[in-house]
Amino acid sequence: MKRSRALALLAGAVFSLNAMAWTVSFSGTIDQGFDNSGVFGVAGRDLRGLSFTQTIEIATDPALWSVTNGGPVFTDISGHGPAFVDTVTVDGQTVRFEVEATGYGRQFLFDEFSTQHTGADYLYTDQRGLAQGDTLRAFQYAYSYLQAFMPSLDFDQRLDLPASGLTTWSEFVITGQRHANFYGNASSIRVNGGPGQEVPEPTPLALAGFGLLLLGGHARRRGRGA
């Protein structure tokens, strides 16, 4: 019985270390935007022409979403979803928004161009929910009908590239006690890259060591009980 419990704990640890998530970061210049309440430091400021980076972090485990679809050229999860974090920097001022649950969202990868040499490659992430009582939307996409840029259909892939040649869009909206919005095109795109933006993967040595610790503790308990 105790050995079974130890193995179950090991399996749970492996699952948590392999938590499915992705981080999508777009950087560029704001085309249109306004900060009504001073979300980014100055109330009543026109944000047009300022630099921005929006980084969305959200779990992509299909079990956490209400709708999942997939096929040879696309991966798609949508509907009600898990918590997410939206970290936004405007003109050097960084604000982190934590949302407890996604009221509606969609994570979408489409890789038709590189597999069929026609069609499009497409990356899409869209989240909506409440951030400490305020309504938040974080939305970003990139696509191209002229070049393949999606290495795979996995949400855990790495991508770091200039957005030249791609059609892009990044949008941020918060309404309530805090009120600001902007949208703009990206000059660079990063997926699952950079410090603090990686889902940890267990190494075989680490897993073996953890398993030995569990089984060693089990053996000690048996020795004391003899």
Automatic annotation (TrEMBL):
Residues 1-21 form the signal peptide. This is PEP-CTERM protein-sorting domain-containing protein. Keywords: Signal.
